[in-house]
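Quick question, first post here. What does this chain look like in 3D?
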Amino acid sequence: MVALLMVACSHPRPWFLNASQTAGGIGNPAANLVDPAQSWDFVPAVDRFSDDALLDLRYLNESVAGETGFIRQSVTGEGLVTGNGRAIRFWPVNTYIWRDSSAAMADQARFLAKRGVNLVRWHGQIPSLQAQDSLQAIDETARDQLWQMVAAMKAEGIYTVISPYFAAALPLQPQWPLPRDSDSMMGLLFFDATLQEAYKAWWRALLEPVNPYTGIALKDDPAVALLQLQNEDSLLFWTLQGLRGEDLNLLTNQYGDWLKSKYGSLDQTLAAWDNSRFDGDDPAQGQLVLGHLFELTQPVSDPGKAQRLADQTEFLTLTMTRFNADMVSFLRTEIGTQSLINANNWKTADTLRLNDAERYSYEPGEVMAVNRYYGGIHKGEYSGWAIVDGDRFTDESVLFHPDQLPTNLKQVAGHPMLITESSWVPPLSYQSEGPFVVSLYQSLNGVDGFFWFSLDQPQWRQPASANGYLPSLGKWIADTPELLGNFPAAALMYRQGYIQAGEVVVQEHRRLEDIWQRQIPIIAEADTFDPNRDIEALSAQAQRDTQVHPLAFLVGPVEVTYDSDPAQSQVMDLTPYIDATAKTVTSITQEITWDYGRGLCWLNSPKAQGVTGFLQAAGSLELADIVVTSGNHYATAVAVAMDDQPLASSQQILVQVGTTARPTGWGQTAVQWQDDDGNSYSGYEVTNYGAAPWQVANADVSLTLRNSAITRAVALDMNGISQGEIALKREPGAVTITMPTNAKYVVLAAA
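> Answer (accepted):
Ran it through. Tokens below.
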């Protein structure tokens, strides 16, 4: 590591290729369509979990989740360990199977364990919505569903995260005293004592009674890995502006009290602000208003106004921090849970200026988290949750947009980091890259879990209505051929530690005062866009310069320490790893290379090797022990040792191939359009959202492995059952296979 000032670098903009400039026809509709004549029907048999399966990762899980005690932080604080201190890596999903029967829950649990999953997230609502019930009452049916799910998952060695409150999606009830004048509960939990008392009652009713399906209360069950205080809410996000009337007055009065405590009086406060005023200020009546959140996203030159906005930022952040600390104390001391706690998982109105304040507010909990997806622009009447004919969308692989990789996170030193919701979101077609690159960069950067969103079927989900009755295609789905179907190899190499963790390449230290003043950090995550709640005009990917190259996240871990001396910040010299001319980024471990000029990413580690991207244009790709050649415009191919041995000497190897999938009959046409703000887009219009079953593009992949021990190649079905041996070409020191066009998995084995 070297001092920051010695390596502060400039980086040219733009530093990645626009998709329309790339070779290989990303702008060509034919390149995105799954040709019915060159595809296969995805109609796998129901998995009966036969002992004859050659691919079954259930053995990676504990016999029952929590068999040695509660999940806890590692010695460094940044990893996770089991009750006996053994390091554990999670390959998690969000599931809604709890809405189904107990038999369906048990079926899904076994299905997921077989494919490498060892953690699920229950993302629900615990308040009762019954007309006669008070605000403090819980939904007992939801609790019973959670109880059943915890029991089912526990039996298959799968831990559970409990996320019981989502203000944005909570239907308001007329008998509730809240909200008073606002249209939603957004933001209230941080400062409204009435809601906080009800919230504590919900947790008591959820955690303290004995789960009849396990015989142990959730607070005492080590299969409950994590409690999440709430989902996606922040006083630093645009929804703050939704506070109205008495709800806003309550927060404003608390702000006034805080200012009096800090400065002595409101008059002294105004003096400290050089008499900076906002419309609505009435110090004679004891009121100084909160400025519009937009003010916090802008540079400020006036010293008085700057201090006023710094105070507002500090107050909002500490309000959230205090709530989080109070609830952690309540759960620990009054309820007595030992499960880890995460405060929140959201973002802010300005990633560059406000995200560090948001993450600082999470520090009372042990675990940091964020929800962060990859996908393109999607516009349509129901685009927040469904795909219908007439929708318009952009379709670009993340491989040309490395800044947008969801695992590019500035992690808080001393805390594990989870991505509690993510996916490669439809109608995006480039999905098989997702599990592969997530496995690589989670391993490199120490991200502790990437929760795919979401699964709602016991096994596979075929193309179907988003809500059961609207003629449409579901959007927030991951139990599909090119996401869930590509879990096994990705989960295996991640959970087994086949990919090296990197040493920290950026260690930032930040003073709290600089955070309140919203000073630019030395490095920041890229902005993300939520189609349901962002203000589109303010969510564009503003490529704002920071001192450190934004692709540092692909070199190795990036960390930040709060309430610390910025002089301690250190940045490794990144020039050996980031080649702007070649458009490549190499990991500090030398095992991973991302070529964002050609749309490729490959792994070259002793026990796992593979490549994803635009393989046909790349020609043969030679790695240490394998050579991959593909006629597919786009595909993912990976070889992973199944016996924890180097590929060169392994006796059993999984070869996994992903391509693309679309519903039967899917149609799209190239279009250009402008949004309401005049931004222009080139993309596609859905002409037919299709029907079941999925059509999966034929694999056109051959793989040569330098291993003299392998003598057999067995093709598997989607359940890991042998479909017979395939041709294996042997030559001195190596073997070559051609993947069956309609198979995702082949096992190579020694005699």
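The longest helix spans residues 303-335.
The CA atoms of residues 123 and 163 lie 5 Å apart.
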